[in-house]
Amino acid sequence: MVAGAPRLGPWSRIWRYLVAGAIGLSLWGAVIAAYSAPRGIELTADDVAVIGGFVTLDLVAGLVAVAVLPARHRHPMIASVVSVGLTVISSFAVGPAMLAVVSMSTRRRWKPAVAIGFLWVGSALINELVLRPRVPGTTSDLAFTWAGGGLAVAVYAVCVSTGFYIGARRELLASLRDRVENAEREQTLRAQSARESERTRIAREMHDVLAHRISLVSLHAGALNYRTDLTRVETAEAATVIQNNAQLALTELRQILGVLRSSDGDEHAEPPQPTLAELPALLADSREAGMDVTMRVVELDLGDGPRGSAFEGLSDSVSRTAYRIVQEALTNARKHAGRAPVNLVLEKRVDELLVVVRNPRGRGIETELRGSGVGLLGLRERAELSGGSLDYGIDRGDRFVVTARLPWA
């Protein structure tokens, strides 16, 4: 079978045979009608017997041509040669021969098509010039013969063109199918690469926090080991500090469990990453860049106390995650929505921080920049490692919405 050709189901096979059989029966009926109406010649009993023999031979040869059709997939040339050759003695065989020629032409090879074409025209001429005159009551007319030959060439050209079209369409569909499969595999690899890259960045960012916590634990543990003059209250306070920092360090470590920091030979750890304390500066930079950004806070008061004091109790890792989510959402809005207004909502709930960023869909001013499609995948991985979740999509108002739910404690 041709590469890319679909496997035919039962009904697909049946209707092809029905069409070929219907064409053959129609032509066979036309031949019977022509033999039954001789041109002014009175037929004898022997002539009727001869005509009956020709009609029977026509039917038998046509049935043989139908029986050959199942071999057209594995042996297209043999099936075409046999079915076309039978048209010399059978008008019924023309229908199966047409199906065999179409199937053979789906290979899109010109040499077999030309060779079968000569056989097709030759069989038609032999039938008109040799076999037909031998039937009692029929005569051979040169004009009718030429017309029949021209019709045979036209029918064969239609069959070959149909087969070439089907073959080209099958190759196109196979090519598109391969491209889709390759694109899906590449997208999977990009997603995996994005997750691994995000895990590595998270491991780098956690380095400073863990080092800070563990250094405090080591300092106070050393004090308990060497300071024998501490009072009971001071000892309890030091133990409390050790316990709290150990618990915080375990919390941070649990979030990056299984994530290995890549080794690039850099001897110095990366500086601490920004948190929600730097959110006002981020929004100010976005507004200076021309964006229309509005922020609404629920159960938070960013105006009281030092910058970021409203997020007291929120772990540094979760705060960094929330900051990155807002940053990525603003970047995407600037790329894809231009100067469209962006709405940011920060809400403190019982045990979680809700971050929602909305912006209308549109054509951004940076049309030359095409997103890789992995930024949000990385943020989802980051949110899940923080014990939260992140969703994004289009809402009923045709706005792109990024929603993150992060644990407060």
From TrEMBL:
<feature type="domain" description="Histidine kinase/HSP90-like ATPase">
    <location>
        <begin position="320"/>
        <end position="406"/>
    </location>
</feature>
<keyword id="KW-0808">Transferase</keyword>
<feature type="transmembrane region" description="Helical">
    <location>
        <begin position="77"/>
        <end position="101"/>
    </location>
</feature>
<dbReference type="Pfam" id="PF07730">
    <property type="entry name" value="HisKA_3"/>
</dbReference>
<dbReference type="InterPro" id="IPR036890">
    <property type="entry name" value="HATPase_C_sf"/>
</dbReference>
<dbReference type="InterPro" id="IPR003594">
    <property type="entry name" value="HATPase_dom"/>
</dbReference>
<keyword id="KW-0597">Phosphoprotein</keyword>
<feature type="transmembrane region" description="Helical">
    <location>
        <begin position="143"/>
        <end position="167"/>
    </location>
</feature>
<keyword id="KW-1133">Transmembrane helix</keyword>
<keyword id="KW-0547">Nucleotide-binding</keyword>
<dbReference type="GO" id="GO:0046983">
    <property type="term" value="F:protein dimerization activity"/>
</dbReference>
<feature type="transmembrane region" description="Helical">
    <location>
        <begin position="113"/>
        <end position="131"/>
    </location>
</feature>
<keyword id="KW-0472">Membrane</keyword>
<dbReference type="GO" id="GO:0000155">
    <property type="term" value="F:phosphorelay sensor kinase activity"/>
</dbReference>
<protein>
    <recommendedName>
        <fullName>histidine kinase</fullName>
        <ecNumber>2.7.13.3</ecNumber>
    </recommendedName>
</protein>
<feature type="transmembrane region" description="Helical">
    <location>
        <begin position="48"/>
        <end position="71"/>
    </location>
</feature>
<dbReference type="InterPro" id="IPR050482">
    <property type="entry name" value="Sensor_HK_TwoCompSys"/>
</dbReference>
<dbReference type="Pfam" id="PF02518">
    <property type="entry name" value="HATPase_c"/>
</dbReference>
<feature type="transmembrane region" description="Helical">
    <location>
        <begin position="14"/>
        <end position="36"/>
    </location>
</feature>
<dbReference type="GO" id="GO:0005524">
    <property type="term" value="F:ATP binding"/>
</dbReference>
<keyword id="KW-0902">Two-component regulatory system</keyword>
<keyword id="KW-0418">Kinase</keyword>
<keyword id="KW-0067">ATP-binding</keyword>
<feature type="domain" description="Signal transduction histidine kinase subgroup 3 dimerisation and phosphoacceptor">
    <location>
        <begin position="198"/>
        <end position="263"/>
    </location>
</feature>
<keyword id="KW-0812">Transmembrane</keyword>
<dbReference type="InterPro" id="IPR011712">
    <property type="entry name" value="Sig_transdc_His_kin_sub3_dim/P"/>
</dbReference>
<dbReference type="GO" id="GO:0016020">
    <property type="term" value="C:membrane"/>
</dbReference>
